[in-house]
Structure formats: structure tokens, C-alpha cells
Automatic annotation (TrEMBL):
Chain ranges passing through the membrane: none
PROSITE patterns per the UniProt record, alphabetical: ABC_TRANSPORTER_1, ABC_TRANSPORTER_2
Pfam family, one: ABC_tran
Domain of life: Bacteria
GO molecular function: ATP binding; ATP hydrolysis activity
InterPro entries: AAA+_ATPase, ABC_AA/LPS_Transport, ABC_transporter-like_ATP-bd, ABC_transporter-like_CS, BCA_ABC_TP_C, P-loop_NTPase
Species this chain originates from: Loktanella salsilacus
Annotated protein name in UniProt: Amino acid/amide ABC transporter ATP-binding protein 1, HAAT family
Domain spans labelled ABC transporter: 2-250
Entry's Gene Ontology cellular component terms: plasma membrane
Entry keywords, A to Z: ATP-binding, Nucleotide-binding, Transport
Keyword Nucleotide-binding: yes
Amino acid sequence: MIVVENLVKTFGGFRAVDGASLSIAEGSITGLIGPNGAGKTTLFNVIAGVLQPTSGRVTMQGHDITGLAPHDLFHRGLLRTFQIAHEFPSMSCRENLMMVPGGQSGETLWNTWFGRKRIADEERALKAKADEVLDFLTVSHLADHKAGQISGGQKKLLELGRTMMVDAKIVFLDEVGAGVNRTLLNTIGDAIIRLNKERGYTFVVIEHDMDFIERLCDPVICMAEGKVLAQGTLAEIKANEQVIEAYLGTGLKNKDQVATV
Ligand SMILES: Nc1ncnc2c1ncn2[C@@H]1O[C@H](COP(=O)(O)OP(=O)(O)O)[C@@H](O)[C@H]1O
Ligand SMILES: [Mg+2]
């Protein structure tokens, strides 16, 4: 579904992504792991159009999408969530979901004058959709809570919910489990699996929690120093010498600790 070829992203002289090549299979939940500073977030940012690549190519279903703006990619069904959740704090969770652009006709002057009924219909549909998403994520009880007042984990769920307001094809999740308690992490994991199985979403998941990766992801890709070191099942990745070296370089004592990074 996504093919990344020789991607390079430099900051000043520093090669944060240094010739990364990888492919993401349609229908997969692909894990992306690697020590801090490996270039994972930067890779996501380049694929999702947040950053322009220095060189290299990204294709989606055979179409060149290199350097396209996030909103263009959004309309093609490529979405990303952020390491830090981006909610509108003073709006309710339901309203936050309703804010996701999805072809509402509310904005134009023509519509405000001539399309009141249509806008009302759309708003009703949008509200129903938002409630359906909250229900899917098992957080209907948060619909009227201000998004700024829910827990960090619940904000991550809301981020995932935003991807469900549009017809996403592939979703990039950056550390969806960071700072999230075990119960909520399981809820997030369940939602990802269901979206994958029932709605055909493809996922790419950056996560440090190896239990989470093990439960969800096949294959797993490991990056270090801007490069892709290995791709395979988590077991294969854990046994890979270069991967062990990369994690050892971060001060770990043995390969078992790869599992706990
Ligand atoms: N905007 C930036 N300017 C300069 N350096 C950056 C910037 N973003 C990331 N980096 C550097 O690029 C490297 C990769 O960062 P990042 O992609 O965030 O890694 P990861 O997500 O794997 O932890 C790090 O050394 C980081 O300091
Ligand atoms: Mg990161």
C-alpha cells in the first residue's frame, strides 16, 4: 500500500532519516520500533506530508505522494495521529470529533443563505457519526466531557476516533500507548484490531511497549540512526544481531531487554 524508497530527511547537516526504504502491506498492522532518536517520528512526518523529504520517494497504491500536503493525503485516506494528542480542550469530546473535516458544506456563504436545512441535516449526521465512533471506542460516557479534562489515555482514544470520522485507509499512530494505563491501552489495542478487521484499516504503529507490539503487529520494522535495520515478525526482530546492537548502543545489557524498551 505504501512504498518508501531511499527516504532522506536532514535537519541542518544531521540525517534524521538516512536512506530508509520499506513497504507497508495493505491490511497489515505494521509495527515500527527502534531506540529513541532512530528517526521514526520524522519518517512518519515525511510520509504524512508534515515535513518535506530531502530526497527519496513515497508511493501510495502506486501513486507518487512524495511531499503532498497533509490535507491532500487526508483526502486520499492517509491519516496520522500525534505523539502528543491535539485536542480542542474547551470543546466536548463529541464536538472534537465533529470538527474533523469531512466535506461539511457549512462554511460557504451560499450554503448559509440557501442551505440551512442541508446544514442541519449534515450536522445531525455528523453528530450521529461522532456518537457511533464514541460507542465503537467504548467511551460513550465521555461524549459531553470537555476534551481538555479527560485523561491522557482517553485523549489518545479520541485521536483514534478522529480517524474514524473520515474514510481512512491507512493510519499512522505515533506512540499511542505513551503514558496510557494498561486497561486503556488494551481498549486502544482492541479498537485498532477491530478497525483493521472490520473496516479494513491498514495501520503503522510506533510503540515502545513490546507487549502491545506483540499483540497487534505483524510485521515489525526496526529503525536505528535513520535507517531500516530489519523487518520481520517480532520474534525475528528480537533475534536480529543488528537490532540487538542498536539497542545495546542505547545502554541495554542483553537482548532480552529489547523486549522491555
Ligand atoms: N525539527 C528537528 N530539528 C532538528 N533535529 C530534529 C528535528 N526533529 C527530529 N530531530 C532529530 O532527529 C532525530 C530523530 O528524531 P525522531 O524522528 O523524533 O526520532 P524517534 O521518533 O525515533 O525517537 C533525533 O536525533 C532528533 O533530535
Ligand atoms: Mg518519536
